[in-house]
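[Q] Does anyone have a clean structure-token version of this?
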Amino acid sequence: MKSLFAYGFRPHFLFAGLAALLLIPVWVLDFVFGIALTTGWPPTLWHAHEMLYGFIVSAVAGFLLTAVPSWTGQKGFAGRPLMLLSALWVAARLMIATSSYWPRVLTAAVDLSFLPVLAALVARPLLRSQNRNSPLLIVLTLLWLTNLVFHVALIRHDSPLALHAMLIGIDVMLVLVTIIGGRIVPAFTATALRPLGVQRSVGSRPALTIAAVASMVAVTLTDLLAPDSQLSGGVAAMAAVLQGLRLTQWGGLKTLRQPIVWILHVAYVWLPVGLALKAVALLNGAAFAAFWLHALTIGALTTMILAVMTRAALGHTGRPLVVHPMTIASYLLLVGAALIRVFGLAVLKIAYPMVIAWAAFLWTAAFLLFVVVYGPILCKARVDGKPG
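[A] Here you go.
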């Protein structure tokens, strides 16, 4: 137990893996088999909220609590502060799962407490060192605001507003992937290719970086002010082109023999794909593009999370950056889940309940393998004897 709270990534990567493993099967039991959820929330809102503010936010917390000490040279987060943050996350999940027994305001208050406490922990070292990553505090604030709007909408029984808040929250996360992914994908690729003497094939033009980030901010703003509009479709198309051009700089095809690297490229490629599908859906209405949101959430966000968690957990526990065969299988299973969820109905002609069932099966299998391989790694001390 002591090792679990020895560094920020440990509990929150484990929580993210467990949440991913449990939440989707529970959702499928309700959606496909009609077995009612224990929560008092509308099932679709519960599913959307817990995937973003339960699963994804836990992974983000693990990343920030690990990256901020590295960025600032400060001592890592461990012990009681980490236990408090973990307890808030667990309490929120349990209260939401049993929300019919609690006042909605109380459930909202517990859930809304997590991100401010996370922000308070990472703000001090970021601001003290005047670190260039300090604007990430704005991302956390925006994410918290979307969660606040969601809870207000839920209390007011305003489902459209709650879903709109979720869309903006997803957009905020995609901005974060664009910023952080745009740093780590080329950096890790160059490191991996250096022994082969081809690291110079990895580039990053500053103007294209700025344009890609700005385009994602524009996607967020148009979704906020004019969701599901022609304007939103046009901006998504522009962002898809810029993200695609950005990806071509990073030499992804040269990493095919290194799963821990190519999975980062696979995750990022879902960004232009998902944005392009969004543009087609909003501008043309083609059936094959209807599930663009899952291309962005399962494809881009979740695959990037799995890629980062599997790499960071190895590196920060003193292990070689070589993934287990079961981890490679988890990568492939998750990609399969994304493909079936996005294209299963219109392209593969699979009946919709079976699309949900198969995508859920592949997703669950992927995270079962993650928990089996990484659960012990996250709960045990570093293999090199160092603290953390």
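[Q] Thanks! Anything notable?
[A] The two ends are 13 Å apart (CA to CA).
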